[in-house]
């Protein structure tokens, strides 16, 4: 009876080992599938993913030159920051790709982490304001006195209702609470 139970135990361990190997192989195959698919598509010249992206870009790049929309930029800082747009407003044709830079400066004598939160007016314009690149997507760390400039790259959708002629894009720049950042070291006397 003991030989039989030892043999059964050994067989069970052998089966579990095979199942672990099969699971690892399945995970590896699933993980490698996307890069493998892209490599095969590029090698064969079909590149389906890029064609879909190009179609979406072409669809979004239709510029409505028959009208203008004024986009106003507002900057609010909650904390010891200098925060402002390079331009107070721009006039754009819907569908036109536009870049506007914002400048940030940490006025504190310590390193700080912060992030910007956007808001839009009128409210219905939010669905028609498409940002491709924005400093509001990330959290940033600025050293004492450090100044940075970051862009907002956007398109106003041509489907924006005709009665909306002005969009206000407002950002509020907040310090991110709870971050443990290195403090600035005081300067030595006579240095």
Automatic annotation (TrEMBL):
Topology in membrane: Single-pass type II membrane protein
Keyword line: Copper, Membrane, Signal-anchor, Transmembrane, Transmembrane helix
GO molecular function: copper ion binding
Intracellular or extracellular location(s): Cell inner membrane
A GO cellular-component term linked to this record: plasma membrane
Transmembrane intervals: 12-34
Main location: membrane
KW Ubl conjugation (keyword) present: no
Protein family according to the UniProt entry: Belongs to the COX11/CtaG family.
Protein name listed in UniProt: Cytochrome c oxidase assembly protein CtaG
Taxonomic classification: Bacteria, Pseudomonadati, Pseudomonadota, Betaproteobacteria, Burkholderiales
